[in-house]
Protein backbone atom coordinates (compact mmCIF):
# COMPACT_ATOMS: atom_id res chain seq x y z
CA UNK A 1 0.00 0.00 0.00
CA UNK A 2 2.90 2.33 0.77
CA UNK A 3 4.38 1.80 -2.69
CA UNK A 4 0.99 2.48 -4.26
CA UNK A 5 0.64 5.75 -2.34
CA UNK A 6 4.16 6.81 -3.32
CA UNK A 7 3.57 6.13 -7.01
CA UNK A 8 0.18 7.80 -6.85
CA UNK A 9 1.24 11.04 -5.22
CA UNK A 10 4.98 11.31 -5.92
CA UNK A 11 6.22 8.86 -8.53
CA UNK A 12 3.94 9.78 -11.43
CA UNK A 13 3.71 13.08 -13.30
CA UNK A 14 0.54 15.12 -13.62
CA UNK A 15 -1.54 14.32 -16.67
CA UNK A 16 -1.09 16.66 -19.63
CA UNK A 17 -4.82 17.49 -19.70
CA UNK A 18 -6.28 16.53 -16.32
CA UNK A 19 -3.34 17.59 -14.18
CA UNK A 20 -3.17 16.24 -10.62
CA UNK A 21 -6.75 14.93 -10.77
CA UNK A 22 -5.45 12.04 -12.88
CA UNK A 23 -4.11 10.56 -9.63
CA UNK A 24 -7.68 9.76 -8.59
CA UNK A 25 -7.80 7.38 -11.55
CA UNK A 26 -5.28 4.95 -10.04
CA UNK A 27 -7.37 4.52 -6.90
CA UNK A 28 -10.48 4.31 -9.07
CA UNK A 29 -9.07 1.41 -11.10
CA UNK A 30 -7.97 -0.38 -7.94
CA UNK A 31 -11.43 -0.17 -6.41
CA UNK A 32 -13.07 -1.27 -9.67
CA UNK A 33 -10.88 -4.36 -9.96
CA UNK A 34 -11.38 -5.30 -6.32
CA UNK A 35 -15.15 -4.81 -6.41
CA UNK A 36 -15.37 -7.05 -9.48
CA UNK A 37 -13.32 -9.76 -7.78
CA UNK A 38 -15.33 -9.51 -4.56
CA UNK A 39 -18.64 -9.98 -6.34
CA UNK A 40 -17.19 -12.85 -8.38
CA UNK A 41 -16.21 -14.58 -5.13
CA UNK A 42 -19.74 -13.97 -3.82
CA UNK A 43 -21.30 -15.49 -6.94
CA UNK A 44 -18.97 -18.51 -6.92
CA UNK A 45 -19.58 -19.22 -3.24
CA UNK A 46 -23.32 -18.77 -3.73
CA UNK A 47 -23.27 -21.47 -6.40
CA UNK A 48 -21.23 -23.72 -4.12
CA UNK A 49 -23.71 -23.18 -1.29
CA UNK A 50 -26.70 -24.04 -3.49
CA UNK A 51 -24.94 -27.23 -4.60
CA UNK A 52 -23.52 -28.38 -1.25
CA UNK A 53 -25.75 -26.64 1.36
CA UNK A 54 -22.53 -25.97 3.29
CA UNK A 55 -22.99 -22.79 5.33
CA UNK A 56 -19.26 -22.07 5.16
CA UNK A 57 -19.77 -20.95 1.56
CA UNK A 58 -22.62 -18.68 2.61
CA UNK A 59 -20.34 -17.01 5.16
CA UNK A 60 -17.66 -16.33 2.55
CA UNK A 61 -20.24 -15.11 0.03
CA UNK A 62 -21.73 -12.65 2.51
CA UNK A 63 -18.33 -11.38 3.67
CA UNK A 64 -17.19 -10.78 0.11
CA UNK A 65 -20.46 -9.04 -0.77
CA UNK A 66 -20.07 -6.65 2.16
CA UNK A 67 -16.50 -5.77 1.20
CA UNK A 68 -17.41 -5.56 -2.48
CA UNK A 69 -20.16 -3.09 -1.65
CA UNK A 70 -17.69 -0.91 0.26
CA UNK A 71 -15.29 -0.95 -2.69
CA UNK A 72 -18.14 -0.13 -5.06
CA UNK A 73 -18.98 2.87 -2.89
CA UNK A 74 -15.34 3.95 -3.14
CA UNK A 75 -15.51 3.34 -6.89
CA UNK A 76 -18.51 5.64 -7.26
CA UNK A 77 -16.98 8.37 -5.09
CA UNK A 78 -13.65 8.37 -6.95
CA UNK A 79 -15.52 8.19 -10.25
CA UNK A 80 -17.56 11.27 -9.37
CA UNK A 81 -14.42 13.18 -8.35
CA UNK A 82 -12.50 12.17 -11.47
CA UNK A 83 -15.51 12.82 -13.70
CA UNK A 84 -15.88 16.35 -12.33
CA UNK A 85 -12.33 17.11 -13.42
CA UNK A 86 -12.53 15.27 -16.74
CA UNK A 87 -16.07 16.07 -17.90
CA UNK A 88 -16.92 19.21 -15.93
CA UNK A 89 -19.97 17.68 -14.22
CA UNK A 90 -20.42 15.79 -10.98
CA UNK A 91 -22.72 13.20 -12.51
CA UNK A 92 -24.03 12.04 -15.87
CA UNK A 93 -26.15 9.02 -16.71
CA UNK A 94 -23.41 7.45 -18.78
CA UNK A 95 -23.92 3.69 -19.43
CA UNK A 96 -20.93 2.70 -17.28
CA UNK A 97 -21.95 4.93 -14.37
CA UNK A 98 -25.55 3.78 -14.57
CA UNK A 99 -24.57 0.10 -14.59
CA UNK A 100 -22.28 0.65 -11.60
CA UNK A 101 -25.03 2.36 -9.59
CA UNK A 102 -27.39 -0.51 -10.41
CA UNK A 103 -24.76 -3.00 -9.23
CA UNK A 104 -24.30 -1.06 -6.00
CA UNK A 105 -28.06 -0.97 -5.34
CA UNK A 106 -28.44 -4.69 -6.08
CA UNK A 107 -25.81 -5.71 -3.57
CA UNK A 108 -27.12 -3.25 -0.99
CA UNK A 109 -30.45 -5.05 -1.40
CA UNK A 110 -28.63 -8.36 -0.94
CA UNK A 111 -27.16 -7.15 2.36
CA UNK A 112 -30.50 -5.75 3.53
CA UNK A 113 -32.25 -9.05 2.83
CA UNK A 114 -29.62 -10.89 4.87
CA UNK A 115 -30.35 -8.62 7.81
CA UNK A 116 -34.08 -9.24 7.76
CA UNK A 117 -34.04 -12.79 9.08
CA UNK A 118 -32.05 -14.99 11.44
CA UNK A 119 -33.39 -18.20 9.86
CA UNK A 120 -30.07 -19.54 8.68
CA UNK A 121 -30.87 -21.90 5.82
CA UNK A 122 -33.67 -19.82 4.22
CA UNK A 123 -31.48 -16.72 4.47
CA UNK A 124 -28.54 -18.47 2.88
CA UNK A 125 -30.66 -19.91 0.08
CA UNK A 126 -32.40 -16.61 -0.74
CA UNK A 127 -29.11 -14.71 -0.51
CA UNK A 128 -27.44 -17.08 -2.94
CA UNK A 129 -30.19 -16.63 -5.50
CA UNK A 130 -30.12 -12.84 -5.10
CA UNK A 131 -26.32 -12.77 -5.41
CA UNK A 132 -26.42 -14.68 -8.69
CA UNK A 133 -29.14 -12.40 -10.04
CA UNK A 134 -27.15 -9.31 -9.03
CA UNK A 135 -23.93 -10.70 -10.48
CA UNK A 136 -25.41 -10.60 -13.98
CA UNK A 137 -24.72 -6.86 -13.87
CA UNK A 138 -20.95 -7.36 -13.35
CA UNK A 139 -20.08 -8.39 -16.94
CA UNK A 140 -22.64 -5.89 -18.25
CA UNK A 141 -20.92 -3.15 -16.24
CA UNK A 142 -17.55 -4.13 -17.70
CA UNK A 143 -18.81 -4.23 -21.29
CA UNK A 144 -20.94 -1.08 -21.29
CA UNK A 145 -18.19 1.12 -22.75
CA UNK A 146 -17.73 -1.40 -25.56
CA UNK A 147 -21.39 -2.07 -26.29
CA UNK A 148 -22.79 1.46 -26.08
CA UNK A 149 -21.67 4.99 -26.78
CA UNK A 150 -19.99 6.21 -23.62
CA UNK A 151 -17.90 9.15 -22.51
CA UNK A 152 -16.08 6.82 -20.13
CA UNK A 153 -12.52 6.21 -21.43
CA UNK A 154 -11.46 2.76 -22.65
CA UNK A 155 -8.02 2.44 -21.09
CA UNK A 156 -7.23 -1.19 -21.91
CA UNK A 157 -7.78 -2.05 -25.59
CA UNK A 158 -6.62 -4.72 -28.03
CA UNK A 159 -3.78 -2.35 -28.92
CA UNK A 160 -2.51 -2.09 -25.35
CA UNK A 161 -2.93 0.34 -22.47
CA UNK A 162 -3.35 3.94 -23.52
CA UNK A 163 -1.15 5.52 -20.84
CA UNK A 164 2.48 6.34 -20.17
CA UNK A 165 4.49 3.39 -18.72
CA UNK A 166 4.92 5.01 -15.30
CA UNK A 167 1.16 5.61 -15.12
CA UNK A 168 0.52 2.00 -16.08
CA UNK A 169 2.84 0.92 -13.26
CA UNK A 170 1.00 3.15 -10.77
CA UNK A 171 -2.33 1.71 -11.90
CA UNK A 172 -1.26 -1.92 -11.51
CA UNK A 173 0.43 -1.31 -8.15
CA UNK A 174 -2.76 0.38 -6.94
CA UNK A 175 -4.76 -2.63 -8.10
CA UNK A 176 -2.39 -4.99 -6.26
CA UNK A 177 -2.62 -2.90 -3.08
CA UNK A 178 -6.41 -2.87 -3.15
CA UNK A 179 -6.52 -6.63 -3.77
CA UNK A 180 -4.16 -7.19 -0.84
CA UNK A 181 -6.43 -5.05 1.34
CA UNK A 182 -9.39 -7.13 0.18
CA UNK A 183 -7.58 -10.35 1.09
CA UNK A 184 -6.68 -9.15 4.58
CA UNK A 185 -10.16 -7.76 5.17
CA UNK A 186 -11.74 -11.00 3.99
CA UNK A 187 -9.79 -13.04 6.51
CA UNK A 188 -11.08 -10.90 9.36
CA UNK A 189 -14.66 -10.72 8.07
CA UNK A 190 -14.92 -14.45 7.41
CA UNK A 191 -13.76 -15.21 10.95
CA UNK A 192 -16.39 -12.87 12.36
CA UNK A 193 -18.97 -14.29 9.95
CA UNK A 194 -18.35 -17.82 11.21
CA UNK A 195 -19.00 -16.68 14.76
CA UNK A 196 -22.17 -14.85 13.70
CA UNK A 197 -23.40 -17.86 11.73
CA UNK A 198 -22.73 -20.18 14.66
CA UNK A 199 -24.68 -17.90 16.99
CA UNK A 200 -27.59 -17.75 14.54
CA UNK A 201 -27.66 -21.56 14.33
CA UNK A 202 -27.61 -21.78 18.13
CA UNK A 203 -30.44 -19.23 18.46
CA UNK A 204 -32.48 -21.15 15.90
CA UNK A 205 -32.01 -24.42 17.78
CA UNK A 206 -32.95 -22.80 21.10
CA UNK A 207 -36.12 -21.33 19.59
CA UNK A 208 -37.04 -24.73 18.15
CA UNK A 209 -36.64 -26.40 21.54
CA UNK A 210 -38.67 -23.72 23.31
CA UNK A 211 -41.49 -24.17 20.81
CA UNK A 212 -41.63 -27.94 21.33
UniProtKB/TrEMBL annotation:
Q: Which GO terms describe its biological process?
A: cytochrome complex assembly
Q: Which Pfam families match?
A: Cytochrom_C_asm
Q: Which PANTHER family match?
A: CYTOCHROME B_B6 PROTEIN-RELATED, HEME EXPORTER PROTEIN C
Tell where it localizes. Answer: Membrane
Q: Which GO terms describe its cellular component?
A: plasma membrane
Put simply, this protein is called Heme exporter protein C
Which family is it part of? Belongs to the CcmC/CycZ/HelC family.
Which InterPro entries is this protein grouped with? Cyt_c_assembly, Cyt_c_biogenesis_CcmC, Cyt_c_biogenesis_CcsA/CcmC
Molecular function terms, GO-annotated: heme binding; heme transmembrane transporter activity
Residue ranges annotated for the Cytochrome c assembly protein domain, each copy included = 17-151
Q: How does it sit in the membrane?
A: Multi-pass membrane protein
Annotated transmembrane regions? 25-52, 59-83, 95-113, 125-145, 165-185
- Keywords (A to Z) from UniProt: Cytochrome c-type biogenesis, Membrane, Transmembrane, Transmembrane helix
Amino acid sequence: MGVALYLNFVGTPDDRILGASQRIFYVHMGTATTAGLAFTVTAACSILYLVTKNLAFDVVAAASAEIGTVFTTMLLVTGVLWGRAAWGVWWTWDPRLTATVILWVLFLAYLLVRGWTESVEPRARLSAVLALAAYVDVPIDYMTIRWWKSIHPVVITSHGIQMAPVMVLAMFVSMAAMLALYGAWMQLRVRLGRVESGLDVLKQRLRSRMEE
